[in-house]
Amino acid sequence: MNATASEQGKQDHLVRGILALILATLFFAGQDAVTKHLTASVAVPQLLFVRYFFFALFALIYASRKRRLRQAFRAHRPLTQLLRGLLIWAEIGMFAYGLRFLGIAEMHSIFACFPLIITALSVPMLGESVGWRRWIAVSAGFIGTLIIIQPGSGVFSTPALIALACAFMFAIYNLVTRKVSRADSFETSLLYFGVVGFAASLTVVPFYWEPLLPQQLILLLLISATSICGHLLLIKSLELAPAVILQPFNYFILVWAMIIGYSFYGEVLEATTLAGAALVVGSGIYIARREYLVARTTQRRLRRAMYPPEA
């Protein structure tokens, strides 16, 4: 009876974690929709400054509730954390700039290849082993990306290359985050994310600052609120369910981007773009499933080694 109740509790946690992640992707897609509207009238450095100001406050408050700030700021690899913070700051700025020229759904269709890049780069950067099945999935996903940005189409342009560069930067950011998380706490990484980004914004924004209209300020506050809500839900989802199970549900952001892009901007993706996006997402989901199966097999082997069956 207790075992059944325990299993039911785990299932409930998994469902709640998945729902929290899906809701987080909705907030992030909504944030991108507002960002796209604002980049037409507000400079990207100014947008980053306001967004990072509030996110840095959120990071400081969150970290202080978990441990002392002095301890949270102590990183085993402070230079790596600094470079990591600058990398994601630059990626967010480039993504916002790309939204000036590409639709939300187009941007995310290209950006969706970042998990494939993570898998490919995890071999040289982290020394991880990737089986032949996952290499085939990575290759299929990159073919899907090429279908989306095919030469001669309207999507193949400098903004499309910006979106692809963002995917590479975000993939490297994830790999570096995975590396520093082996020694540093989540609170430390969150602090460096917020504080480094705010400091970087502070050095650039004086050259771009212009008085804001009340409507622009409200939308900037809305971006900050959706970012914080999205990250809180993301943190909660990771508390409730393992990341390897949650990974496929990150692709819901592409679904939300298509719905929001069509509803507010009249964006309609071409059949080739949809086909390429389906290939990218399908490859990513397959890789996530293979990683889950490999991790489960490894855990079983470790249990057998530690607790061998009695003769």
Helicity level = over 70%
How many structural domains does the protein architecture include? 1
Overall residue-averaged pLDDT value = 85
Rg measurement, Å: 20 Å
Taking the sheet with the most strands, its summary is: none
- Which structural class is indicated by helix and strand composition? mainly alpha
What gross morphology would you assign?
globular
Total number of beta strands: 0
Strand content: under 5%
Detailed description of the structure:
The chain is mostly helical. The chain has one domain. The protein is 79% helix and 0% strand. It is built from 13 helices and no strands. The chain has helices at 2-38, 44-66, 69-72, 78-98, 104-111, 114-126, 132-148, 158-180, 186-204, 214-240, 243-246, 252-265, 271-306. Helix 1 (2-38) packs parallel to helix 12 (252-265). The two termini are 29 Å apart. The mean pLDDT is 85.
